[in-house]
């Protein structure tokens, strides 16, 4: 038996939605048996992605989150219809090697540039693309680690 979970949320662009979305995701991952440290990483990825929308997508009143969980990975999409951030920042955040990222002095960046670097450091894959209606789609992919109690889900 394999698992598949899909969460979809349409939320107002309000800071109060960020911890609520994180708690919903954490509860779902805990119920399925994802390791606590892995849940923390995935939760921080979601928090940073949502916080970026709250901070930067000023031309929109809402945003969308979709989360897809399989027995191998978690894929988070955060979509907003606001303005796209500077393409140079997107390249910096998504195309650095792990070594370049590890050696980066985050103190040289302004405080608004760190969220993408945190996501990049925690996710296995990070993609930032223009949304069809304007704005930005952030996709973060993370390999899941399971507790021994989750072994029942791993059977086929």
UniProtKB/TrEMBL annotation:
<feature type="domain" description="Histidine kinase/HSP90-like ATPase">
    <location>
        <begin position="12"/>
        <end position="129"/>
    </location>
</feature>
<keyword id="KW-0418">Kinase</keyword>
<keyword id="KW-0067">ATP-binding</keyword>
<dbReference type="Pfam" id="PF13581">
    <property type="entry name" value="HATPase_c_2"/>
</dbReference>
<dbReference type="InterPro" id="IPR003594">
    <property type="entry name" value="HATPase_dom"/>
</dbReference>
<keyword id="KW-0723">Serine/threonine-protein kinase</keyword>
<dbReference type="InterPro" id="IPR036890">
    <property type="entry name" value="HATPase_C_sf"/>
</dbReference>
<protein>
    <submittedName>
        <fullName>ATP-binding protein</fullName>
    </submittedName>
</protein>
<keyword id="KW-0808">Transferase</keyword>
<dbReference type="GO" id="GO:0005524">
    <property type="term" value="F:ATP binding"/>
</dbReference>
<keyword id="KW-0547">Nucleotide-binding</keyword>
<dbReference type="InterPro" id="IPR050267">
    <property type="entry name" value="Anti-sigma-factor_SerPK"/>
</dbReference>
């Amino acid at each position: 038996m394999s698992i598949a979970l899909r969460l979809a949320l349409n939320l107002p662009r309000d800071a109060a939605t960020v911890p609520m979305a994180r708690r919903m995701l954490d509860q779902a991952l805990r119920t399925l048996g994802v390791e606590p440290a892995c849940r923390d990483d995935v939760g921080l990825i979601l928090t940073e992605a949502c916080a970026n929308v709250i901070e930067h997508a000023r031309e929109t009143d809402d945003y969308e989150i979709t989360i897809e969980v399989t027995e191998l990975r978690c894929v988070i999409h955060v979509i907003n219809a606001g303005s796209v951030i500077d393409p140079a920042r997107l390249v910096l955040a998504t195309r650095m090697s792990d070594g370049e990222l590890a050696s980066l002095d985050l103190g040289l960046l302004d405080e608004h540039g760190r969220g993408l670097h945190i996501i990049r450091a925690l996710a296995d894959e990070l993609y930032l693309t223009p949304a069809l209606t304007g704005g930005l789609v952030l996709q973060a992919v993370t390999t899941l680690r399971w507790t021994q109690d989750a072994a029942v889900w791993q059977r086929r």
